[in-house]
Design a protein that fits this description.
single chain; about 250 residues; Rossmann fold; seven-stranded mixed β-sheet; two-stranded antiparallel ribbon; 8 helices; globular
Length: about 250
């Protein structure tokens, strides 16, 4: 066999090996048994970042509820922020998400969630879906989450992210959060992630007896307030000073 023939055979052999290798990758990907959802949630490198954040920035701030700590360890916050900010996702800071809105710092998400005392809660209403991160944390803890966002592009993107991550217990809608979701009331807990200048009466009305409402109230800097509904009325507690974006309302309601 001359050198030209041997070279041709070698070339053909290399192409066959390459084709078989690519085919094997396709087969392995199709038979791995790992869903898209699992692939997104199980990212070892970013899991280490979440663990560091919880251990060094969340627990030291006094968050103790094991279910909340587990939720923050599990939810991939980097999936809820713009790609430009992905490297900052596991620092305890708020980040812009577009349309003049932000994703809250994880310690504040944990603080507000813990204040709701969700043990035994079945249905939680969230006002201000934003990126969907708070929705995901809640969905790790309670059976049903109802969330409302008035900015339609944010609502659409959040719904896509939550669906991509496999959350099936979150019910989302576009609308004026001030009005709540009366047809689904009462709720065991309500969380508001944008600041009205007063406590919306519709949200108080939609809170079940024994339920809790947490929200920032005021302009510029606000007080974070917890309202607890009893059989006789409401009890109010000031938790801390915070700064949230204003609660956006429909034009006819301004």
């Amino acid at each position: 066999m001359n050198s030209s023939a041997r070279a041709l055979i070698s070339l053909i052999t290399l192409w066959i090996i390459r084709i078989l290798f690519i085919h094997s990758l396709i087969v392995l990907a199709g038979c791995s048994g790992v869903s898209r959802e699992d692939s997104l949630l199980k990212d070892p490198a970013r899991q280490a970042e979440r663990d560091r954040m919880v251990d060094e920035e969340i627990i030291p701030q006094g968050i103790k509820d094991p279910k909340i700590l587990a939720a923050v360890r599990h939810v991939p916050r980097h999936k809820f922020v713009p790609s430009d900010y992905s490297d900052l996702a596991y620092y305890d800071i708020p980040l812009p998400i577009g349309h003049g809105q932000t994703i809250s710092q994880p310690s504040l998400v944990a603080l507000m969630t813990e204040a709701l005392a969700l043990e035994g809660a079945k249905r939680v209403l969230e006002i201000g879906t934003g990126s969907g991160y708070q929705s995901a944390v809640l969905a790790e803890i309670v059976p049903e989450v109802f969330t409302i966002e008035i900015v339609e592009p944010l609502a659409t993107k959040a719904a896509h992210t939550l669906a991509e991550l496999g959350y099936r217990n979150i019910h989302a809608r576009v609308g004026d959060g001030y009005r709540g979701w009366p047809e689904e009331a009462p709720f065991d807990a309500i969380i508001v992630t944008a600041a009205p200048d007063h406590v919306p009466q519709p949200l108080l009305d939609q809170l079940a007896v024994g339920g809790r409402l947490i929200l920032p109230v005021g302009r510029d800097y606000q007080t974070l307030e917890l309202h607890y509904r009893t059989a006789k009325g409401f009890e109010r507690k000031i938790i801390t000073l915070v700064r949230f974006v204003p609660l956006v309302r429909e034009r006819q309601q301004e």
